[in-house]
Amino acid sequence: MPLQKHLILVGPMGAGKSTIGRLLSEQLSCSFVDVDKVIEERSGATIPWIFDIEGEEGFRDRETQAIEEVCAESPQIIATGGGCILRVQNRQCIKQSGVVIFLSTSVEQQLQRTGRDKNRPLLQTENPQATLEAMAEVRNPIYNEVADLCIDTNLKPTKLVMQEIISFIED
Question: Given the DSSP bridges, would you call strands 98-104 and 149-152 parallel, antiparallel or unpaired?
């Protein structure tokens, strides 16, 4: 089934955007792009390095540019970074470019899935749980605002999440 519009996955880190994006790509025989990977490839640097050198604002500038470029391409599955929705410009771009799926998850699941990952600069704090809770409070309403569909990925098999998304876009 060729995609008519982009299928754009949003949600917090550890919600499964990249994993589910790759599964959807295989199932639907279409290309998959991870915005964070695009940023790393184009800059020749890791995201933690970009955060260290340019700060979060510098990273967000690169993210906005990557989102605009990826959304200008032919329809594909796109996994965004967790904070991309913080900029109005990004929200407008993804809403206009495709079907937006919010993959939600609990802070507990996020901690389990990302706890040892050193490539998550925003979690390199003394209290990652408090950081994730604060981010969820700000970001979850925005994810809900941009989403055409919201799926809770907590303790749910990835194939089931994939099937829910496919059923939604087929309807």
Answer: parallel
Nearest to 26 by CA among 156, 154, 162, 152: 162
Question: Using an 8 Å Cβ cutoff, are 3 and 75 in contact?
Answer: yes
Q: Using CA atoms, how far apart are residues 98 and 35, in angstroms rounded to an integer? A: 15
Q: What is the mean pLDDT of residues 14-24?
A: 94
Asked whether the beta carbons of 101 and 149 are under 8 A apart, the reply is yes
Pick from 105, 99, 168: which is nearest to 140 by CA? 105
In the DSSP assignment, the letter for residue 70 is H
Q: What is the pLDDT of residue 75?
A: 96
Position 19: which residue type?
Answer: T
pTM above 0.85, yes or no: yes
- Run of H or E residues at 12: none
Measure the CA–CA gap between 146 and 122, rounded to whole angstroms: 23
Which segments of 58-137 are extended strands (E)? Answer: 77-79, 98-104
Amino acid at 130: A
Please determine, for residue 162, whether its predicted confidence score (pLDDT) is greater than 70.
yes
Residues forming a β-bridge with 149: 101
List of domains in the chain: 6-170 (3.40.50.300)
| pLDDT tens-place string over residues 136-152 | 999 999 999 999 999 99
Query: Alpha-carbon distance 71 to 171, whole Å?
Result: 23
